[in-house]
Amino acid sequence: xxxxxxxxxxxxxxxxxxxxxxxxxxxxxxxxxxxxxxxxxxxxxxxxxxxxxxxxxxxxxxxxxxxxxxxxxxxxxxxxxxxxxxxxxxxxxxxxxxxxxxxxxxxxxxxxxxxxxxxxxxxxxxxxxxxxxxxxxxxxxxxxxxxxxxxxxxxxxxxxxxxxxxxxxxxxxxxxxxxxxxxxxxxxxxxxxxxxxxxxxxxxxxxxxxxxxxxxxxxxxxxxxxxxxxxxxxxxxxxxxxxxxxxxxxxxxxxxxxxxxxxxxxxxxxxxxxxxxxxxxxxxxxxxxxxxxxxxxxxxxxxxxxxxxxxxxxxxxxxxxxxxxxxxxxxxxxxxxxxxxxxxxxxxxxxxxx
Amino acid sequence: xxxxxxxxxxxxxxxxxxxxxxxxxxxxxxxxxxxxxxxxxxxxxxxxxxxxxxxxxxxxxxxxxxxxxxxxxxxxxxxxxxxxxxxxxxxxxxxxxxxxxxxxxxxxxxxxxxxxxxxxxxxxxxxxxxxxxxxxxxxxxxxxxxxxxxxxxxxxxxxxxxxxxxxxxxxxxxxxxxxxxxxxxxxxxxxxxxxxxxxxxxxxxxxxxxxxxx
Lengths: 354, 214
Fold this sequence. Notes:
heterodimer, A: 354 residues, alpha+beta, Alpha-Beta Plaits, three-stranded antiparallel sheet, 11 strands, 30% helix, 15% strand, B: 214 residues, mainly alpha, Fumarate Reductase Cytochrome B subunit
């Protein structure tokens, strides 16, 4: 899917300085799924497949009206069906069109490390550019609605584009166009909010006291909203009641990145200064170095009986009563100390070293 | 070879002793090269402004494929290092004295202590590399196969992987600074496998006496 559509870009993944500055599309668009009007015909599923030229997938009967069990890399729109028994012994048949909600603060985009692989336009559409996707699947972890799907063959991630190609040409998305009952509406977000306010009033008049608009603020609002008649049953619809962009994670990662930048450059600078300050430490001429090596051994041997290092002492077995402290040289390594050598050991007997 | 030794040995001495066997050098450079490849691709993956480095690995998608496999190779090297060198890297009493003289060492490159094959700083860097190398593998697994864990744990792994990576970059800078710049004569230990007698006697007196008794 090309992203060169003439739409103003709000931000791109892993692209810190992106901004269209003055330029902006004036209308923020949105879909509104009026669940009350949905009859579960799946026309939107078919329209999505047709417009986006997605291959059909073989389905199995798993005891539901639902066509596919889940979204897939080739199925970006899915009607989910669920029968729920209500308190009064009545049944409620919950049907929800499941596809990308196009968050205003998209967790997928914020998680993505590939520059430009996820694009958000100023009109609210969040689209993937598969040519830039590296297949890391961080977007899947970042999405609170479990929407993006990884294709194991192409090693890329796919989801609903909100028909950005149609929308940018002034057309409504394919699912909206195909809906026979007008359950999927499309227009400016403000317009959709107006419609929703009126409709919620009507639903309440009809006895759906919990009727609500699903436009969660934890993700900055969405560009595919739901009008939910039974707002107390969000979990049964498969909608998280309070979805959140993993904000703590993203800000922690951002702080860590900045810390890393400063530390790496600071470390290189400090290394250069250290080198300038101390220069290079060459060994002395061979004779002198060899003499010094034997001198160091003598010093170590002398130091040992008079003032054994306190740490080494603690790792030695306690003195046998009346007996002198046995020299560790030649004695088998103690159990806890392993090959720890006491300071008095003859260096030439340090058999552990090669 | 003699020319090289004379140049790096500093004392004009051609007499050398073996510091690292061929197997040890092969292992060191295996771990070094895989680490550098991982570090460069890691910067490309972790820093959007450095994403252009992915070109060195055949583009973002190929790099995403290669990075975990190079990491697996790196981990094999780290485990082999553990097997090959752990015995030499145990801390002893001299190491505690060395730590007290770290400032002297930093200033002059010499402590006068009776150091064996490795000083406490080298041992410390060994354990630092091995432990963090294994942490990188463990935190990298959920990033390789995201379906192994939930998204919450996946994000924790991503954060820890990044933080550990930064620590290893710091260690890498110090390691290269000391071995390639500040202490002449050290590089040949890992290239030709040999060091001058002067270098060995000066930096590792106890090890020198064992290898080259009078």
